[in-house]
Amino acid sequence: MAYEVNGKTIETTEKGYLVNLDDWNEDVAKFIAAQDGIEELTERHWDIINFLRDEYLNNASNQPNMRNIVKAMQKLWDDKKVNAKSLYEFFPKSPDKQATLVAGLPESRRKGGY
């Protein structure tokens, strides 16, 4: 499988995750999001995407679970009402998995739970 973005072919796994992290950029993120049913990436979408990328790229390939994403967004948005359910507004197929896909990161191998 591959994506064609701005005239460049980007190789992916059979599930659509990028093979090469260096192929990712904002245009690729927008393309993947559109392919996955997200028409527009808002500032809050980007907050989640950038958090996941920062954790993976700058914290020993860490892939935060939903609980940690919620805590980070509560702090970033200064909103204690943010919960897992509210993150589904941004990534309706599963905030941790769908956002990871859009962020151009490898598929999570986590088993779930906390």
Automatic annotation (TrEMBL):
Does the keyword field hold 4Fe-4S? no
User: Where do the TM regions start and end?
Assistant: none
Which EC class, in a word? transferase
PANTHER family cross-referenced by the UniProt entry: SULFURTRANSFERASE TUSE
GO terms for biological process?
tRNA wobble position uridine thiolation
List where in the cell it is found.
Cytoplasm
Q: Name one GO cellular component term.
A: cytoplasm
Its annotated function is as follows:
Part of a sulfur-relay system.
Q: What is its main location?
A: cytoplasm
Does the keyword Transferase belong to this entry?
Answer: yes
Supply the Pfam families for this chain: DsrC
According to its UniProt record, the EC number is: 2.8.1.-
Keyword annotations? Cytoplasm, Transferase
Would you tell me the protein name for this molecule?
Sulfurtransferase
As for family, the record states: Belongs to the dsrC/tusE family.
Q: Please give one Gene Ontology molecular function term for this protein.
A: transferase activity
